């Protein structure tokens, strides 16, 4: 009987070697472990053994049974894995097919730029304030130290309304409105639309500006430089150089035009910057005492600075659109680029 | 304003290279817009003399010239110019020259004859448009000299942008003064030493100012026996180098002195002045003058004229009169140097549409103290260049004479404003280099500053501080961050609503558009606004660029429909756009959000096809906006609005307040915008959203007990609104109904004619116990019964 058990084990193990499907494995399992299986038969014969033999053969039979069970188990696992691998292979897909990207919208490029500018100044404690676009001569010019016979008015080609009002030519009137209603300190930026009679590849009759104003007991020109340098580094990169040139605006004194190192040639000189290495991005200056008087601030008690920049111009330093009127056609092929 | 390097150097010494000078002026606030080397491209062009000419053996129109350019051998040059002749001096472009016109001179054979260079016309040299023949040069010139040197073209032109506050810089001397501020070198002003004759000017003319408010100063000299002719080369070169046309010696001199001093001058033919005298007065009603440009001008009594005893002879400070101008026969000249009130010149120039070098300067303010130096300088040049004698004395009527202006300057204030630590000596030095008189005033820290007459723009302490900052250099001012406190911001719901709305709409796949605030007045017809709709009361522009941009928007919808039309015209039909903007409703500027969905929307990628939008896309967009604003108590109500399909629109109501509209565009609106497919629109009032917005979210406990879902399909009349069953379900189930969701609407073969099927999922839930099947079934049966009783709804099997 011992020999019989050993033969069954050898035979079964040999048969397992040839098994290559779960079905044949199952038949083999029945052939050995089934009710009429070979191992079962041997086990049934155990009762005929002597008391001495029984434990010995019983132990051996259990060992054989355990060994075969393990071997069957291992074969089954191997076949399972094989089958899963085949299935996975069959499920392979063409991963070059496009992703099912949900439709998502994009903010207008000018608005993207405006929001970036806004975010930088907000971090520096400037509060966003808005104001009317239809304005009076008083707020757009007179209160900003630009009386009607002032030559500086020639620089503003103003849209007038038939009712005598005008479309603001800059966002500066909002500064006046805020100062009229608020005591210093004032630290605001004014994003929004402004209008001038101008229509060519670099001018649209409506454009966006961000203006800023800081008024306090002691604000210096050097702080104006600090705020704008900080802005430029964040907006255009920390390698950006800045240049303040004296200029004239009726509502600031001293006034400056501010250039950044050309974003294309980095100051070496190229066509975009007229071979100067510099690109003008904004106007700024210390608030003129006359402007303070117009809002009943005492220029001996407070000082301040203001600055203003054109958003389209700044946007286009990055986007380089040859005709900026394209911004307002709202062609979807254009809008999707940004 | 153009200045040249050589001309500036006549008034001040400096060693700056052209690019350095450009940089320095720019950093002083006189922006140099361009720097141009005069005679650039003419480096290889020399003065040549045509020694001999013989015919070209193979061409009738060409000749062979032997040209001397100062080298050992004369050059053979083939030439076709009609004016070429033996002994002529002309420019020769030598081999290798690249002319400004782009022509490169090479050794060439023309019809078998060699040509070793080119004899040039002015056009070929880029000097003028004269192309008829060779440029004729003076035979005084030394043969072989570079042409640039011979013609004084070795100069550099700077194009300056002068800001309106600096009329003093509209002159060579003015710019030289700025260089003085930079270098500290002294000015070299023209030396004037007049030889006057015995004849007294007082006996020959007089000046009467009848309008001293408009004419602070009028000075005149008389020069007799001048000979009108051509100006000498140096004078022509100066004027031509900055683009001023050459006329005759007298006029050229007045233009030269104008450019030198910034003081406009005018020369009258003395004998053409009635009674040989000058009256400065306002024009009489109906008076006329023919100006130098031979235009007849109607004058009004607010215009200042220079008149003789009878009639106007010049528009004061703007342009001379035709009848008294200098001509070839002029022999005696009355030379005017005057100062006029800026706004008067400005108004007259504007009214008559004449803008001259003179008016430009007077409008911005000329220096009254430059009147006499400029007059004397011109008189001297006239005698030198046109002969004649100067009558003794000057007539100088100066009713507007002012004492020099004085300003107190606190040294401490300079540093306070600028954030600098300038020493008193630096401040003093800067001011005196700019021509200011500086004296220590009542205390050591306070200066008494005297403003020179040419700086009328300086009237306040802050103006002086700017001057100091400018010359000290903005780049030398420290860069620091603000030290003051950051004001506490006030919360702004509108900005939050704007932001949330935009983020939500972008998330739905709509693109943001930005349109002009202008529109065509016919846009209201195109969107079919009722005749009495107040949105038609749009503000109008007085000076629009075009009819398309002539009224201000009262609604955003026409702009979005225009955008759809533009895109459709370019074969782009996936239209999903929104805009956030203010509109202009009389004196108010409320903010709006509007959107359009048209054509095909959605992914448009493999597995996620495009689809046509419908009413519920825009409704969903509006519901989403309301949701992100925390607004829940809104209702939709079908309304009559001619912009929309009568059966597919809704107004959005918050209580009784209408806050917007949405729906399918009326087919006639689609026609007006030439759209071949349906378009769905919405427009909401952002102000109303901000008023109602509620961002105060509170935690609600996550349910402890499980919910039970039951689907319910009922058949009802086709015209029943889908929210009626929902109300009944909620009212029947009370607190135990957590939610009701419509998931299907069906009309078709499966239900009787005139009926539709609505399918809902009802979620039952109790906050206090696990609902048993029996409890839910009982409740659900009740719901079904009430739906049947109240709406006649049949269960659909
Ligand atoms: Zn560049």
Q: What report would you give on this structure?
A:
The complex is a heterodimer of chains A (338) and B (797). Chain A is 41% helix and 19% strand. Chain A has eleven helices and nine strands. A seven-stranded mixed sheet of chain A has the order 1-4-5-9-8-7-6, sandwiched between helices. A two-stranded antiparallel sheet of chain A has the order 2-3. Chain B has six domains: 2-38 and 155-183, Phenylalanyl-tRNA Synthetase, Chain B, domain 1, CATH 3.30.56; 45-150, Nucleic acid-binding proteins (OB fold (Dihydrolipoamide Acetyltransferase, E2P)); 196-397, Phenylalanyl-tRNA Synthetase, Chain B, domain 3 (3-Layer(bba) Sandwich); 405-476, Phenylalanyl-tRNA Synthetase, Chain B, domain 1 (2-Layer Sandwich), CATH 3.30.56.10; 493-692, Bira Bifunctional Protein, Domain 2 (BirA Bifunctional Protein, domain 2), CATH 3.30.930.10; 708-795, 2-Layer Sandwich (Alpha-Beta Plaits), CATH 3.30.70.380. In chain B, helix 7 crosses helix 8, helix 10 packs across helix 12 (461-472) and helix 19 (723-733) packs across helix 20 (773-791). Chain B is elongated, with a radius of gyration of 42 Å. Chains A and B meet through strand 1, strand 4, strand 5, helix 8 and strand 6 of A and helix 7, helix 10, helix 12, helix 13 and strand 27 of B. Zinc ion is lined by residues 262, 264-265, 269-270, 272-273, 277 of chain A.
């Amino acid at each position: 009987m011992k020999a019989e058990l050993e033969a069954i084990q050898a035979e079964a193990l040999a048969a397992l070697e040839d098994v290559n499907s779960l079905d044949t494995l199952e038949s083999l399992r029945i052939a050995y472990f089934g009710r009429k299986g070979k191992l079962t038969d041997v086990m049934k014969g155990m009762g005929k053994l002597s008391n001495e033999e029984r434990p010995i053969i019983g132990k051996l039979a259990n060992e054989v049974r355990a060994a075969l069970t393990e071997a069957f188990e291992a074969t089954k696992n191997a076949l399972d894995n094989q089958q899963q691998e085949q299935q996975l292979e069959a499920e392979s897909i063409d991963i070059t097919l496009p992703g099912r990207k949900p439709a998502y919208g994009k903010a207008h490029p000018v608005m993207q730029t405006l929001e970036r500018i806004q975010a930088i100044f907000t971090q520096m404690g400037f509060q966003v304030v808005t104001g009317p676009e239809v304005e009076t001569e008083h707020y757009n010019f007179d209160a900003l130290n630009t009386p009607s016979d002032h030559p500086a008015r020639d620089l503003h080609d103003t849209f007038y309304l038939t009712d005598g009002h005008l479309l603001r030519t800059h966002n500066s009137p909002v500064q006046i409105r805020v100062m009229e209603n608020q005591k210093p300190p004032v630290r605001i930026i004014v994003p929004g639309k402004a209008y001038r009679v101008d229509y060519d590849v670099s001018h649209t009759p409506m454009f966006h500006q961000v203006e800023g104003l800081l008024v306090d007991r002691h604000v210096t020109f050097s702080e104006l430089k600090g705020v704008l340098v900080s802005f430029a580094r964040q907006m255009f990169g920390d390698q950006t150089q800045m240049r303040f040139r004296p200029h004239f605006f009726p509502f600031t004194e001293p006034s400056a035009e501010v250039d950044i190192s050309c974003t294309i040639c980095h100051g070496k000189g190229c066509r975009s910057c007229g071979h100067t290495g510099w690109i003008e991005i904004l106007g700024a200056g210390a608030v003129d005492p006359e402007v303070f008087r117009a809002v009943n601030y005492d220029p001996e008690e407070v000082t301040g600075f203001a600055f203003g920049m054109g958003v389209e111009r700044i946007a286009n330093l990055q986007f380089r659109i040859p005709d900026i009127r394209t911004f307002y056609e709202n062609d979807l092929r254009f809008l999707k680029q940004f | 304003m153009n200045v040249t390097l050589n001309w500036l150097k006549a008034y001040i010494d400096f060693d700056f290279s052209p690019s350095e000078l450009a940089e320095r002026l720019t950093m002083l606030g006189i922006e140099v817009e361009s720097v141009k080397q005069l005679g650039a491209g003419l480096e290889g062009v020399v003065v040549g003399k045509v020694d001999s000419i013989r015919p070209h053996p193979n061409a009738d129109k060409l000749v062979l010239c032997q040209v001397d350019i100062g080298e050992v051998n004369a050059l053979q040059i083939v030439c076709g110019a009609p004016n070429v002749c033996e002994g002529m001096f002309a420019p020769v472009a030598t081999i290798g020259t690249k002319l400004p016109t782009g022509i490169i001179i090479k050794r060439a054979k023309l019809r078998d004859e060699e040509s070793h260079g080119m004899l040039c016309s002015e056009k070929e040299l880029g000097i003028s448009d004269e192309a008829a023949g060779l440029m004729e040069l003076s035979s005084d010139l030394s043969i072989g000299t570079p042409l640039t040197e011979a013609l004084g073209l070795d100069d550099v032109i700077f194009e300056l942008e002068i800001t309106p506050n600096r009329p003093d810089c509209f002159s060579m001397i003015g710019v030289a003064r700025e260089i003085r501020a930079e270098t500290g070198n002294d000015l070299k002003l023209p030396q004037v030493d007049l030889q006057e004759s015995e004849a007294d000017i007082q006996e020959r003319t007089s000046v009467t100012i009848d309008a001293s408010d408009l004419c602070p100063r009028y000075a005149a000299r008389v020069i007799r026996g001048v000979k009108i002719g051509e100006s000498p080369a140096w004078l022509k070169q100066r004027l031509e180098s900055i683009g001023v046309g050459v006329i005759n010696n007298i006029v050229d001199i007045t233009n030269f002195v104008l450019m030198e001093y910034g003081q406009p001058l005018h020369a009258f033919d003395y004998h053409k002045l009635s009674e040989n005298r000058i009256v400065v007065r306002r024009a009489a009603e109906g008076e006329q003058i023919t100006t130098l440009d031979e235009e007849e001008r109607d004058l009004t009594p607010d215009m200042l004229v220079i008149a003789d005893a009878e009639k106007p002879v010049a528009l004061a400070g703007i342009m001379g009169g035709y009848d008294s101008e200098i001509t070839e026969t002029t022999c005696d000249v009355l030379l005017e140097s005057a100062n006029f009130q800026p706004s008067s010149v400005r108004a007259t120039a504007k009214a008559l549409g004449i803008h001259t070098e003179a008016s430009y300067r007077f409008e911005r303010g000329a220096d009254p103290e430059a009147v006499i130096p400029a007059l004397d300088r011109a008189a001297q040049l006239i005698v030198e260049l046109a002969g004649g004698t100067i009558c003794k004395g000057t007539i100088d009527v100066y009713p507007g004479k002012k004492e020099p202006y004085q300003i107190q300057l606190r040294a401490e204030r300079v540093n306070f404003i600028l954030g600098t630590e300038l020493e008193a000596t630096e401040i003093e030095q800067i001011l005196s280099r700019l021509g200011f008189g500086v004296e220590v005033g009542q205390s050591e820290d306070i200066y008494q500053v005297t403003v020179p007459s040419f700086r009328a723009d300086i009237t306040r302490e802050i103006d002086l501080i700017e001057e100091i900052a400018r010359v000290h250099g903005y780049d030398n001012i420290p860069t620091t961050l603000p030290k003051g406190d950051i004001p506490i911001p006030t919360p702004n719901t509108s900005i939050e609503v704007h932001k949330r709305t935009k983020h939500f709409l972008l998330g739905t796949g709509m693109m943001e558009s930005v349109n002009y605030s202008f529109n065509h007045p016919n846009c209201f017809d195109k969107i079919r606004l009722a005749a009495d709709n107040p949105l038609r009361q749009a503000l109008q522009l007085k000076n629009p660029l075009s009819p398309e941009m002539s009224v201000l928007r009262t609604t955003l919808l026409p702009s979005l429909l225009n955008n759809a039309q533009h895109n459709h015209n370019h074969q782009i039909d996936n239209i999903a756009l929104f805009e956030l903007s203010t509109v202009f409703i009389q004196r108010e500027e409320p903010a709006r959000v509007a959107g359009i969905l048209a054509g095909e929307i959605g992914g448009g990628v493999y597995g996620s096809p495009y689809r046509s939008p419908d009413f519920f896309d825009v409704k969903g967009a509006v519901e989403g906006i309301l949701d992100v604003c925390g607004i829940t108590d809104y209702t939709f109500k079908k309304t009559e609005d001619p912009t929309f399909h009568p059966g597919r629109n809704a107004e959005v109501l918050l209580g009784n307040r209408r806050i917007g509209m949405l729906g399918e565009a009326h087919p006639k609106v689609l026609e007006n915008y030439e759209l071949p497919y349906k378009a769905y629109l919405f427009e909401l009032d952002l102000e109303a959203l901000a008023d109602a917005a509620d961002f105060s979210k509170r935690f609600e406990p996550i349910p402890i007990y499980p919910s039970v879902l039951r689907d319910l399909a009922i058949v009802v009349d086709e015209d029943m609104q889908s929210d009626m069953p929902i109300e009944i379900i909620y009212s029947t189930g009370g607190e135990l109904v957590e939610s009701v969701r419509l998931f299907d609407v069906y009309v078709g073969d499966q239900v009787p004619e005139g009926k539709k099927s609505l399918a809902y999922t009802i979620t039952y839930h109790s906050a206090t116990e696990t609902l048993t099947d029996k409890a839910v079934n009982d409740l659900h049966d009740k719901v079904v019964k009430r739906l049947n009783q109240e709406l006649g709804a049949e269960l659909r099997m």
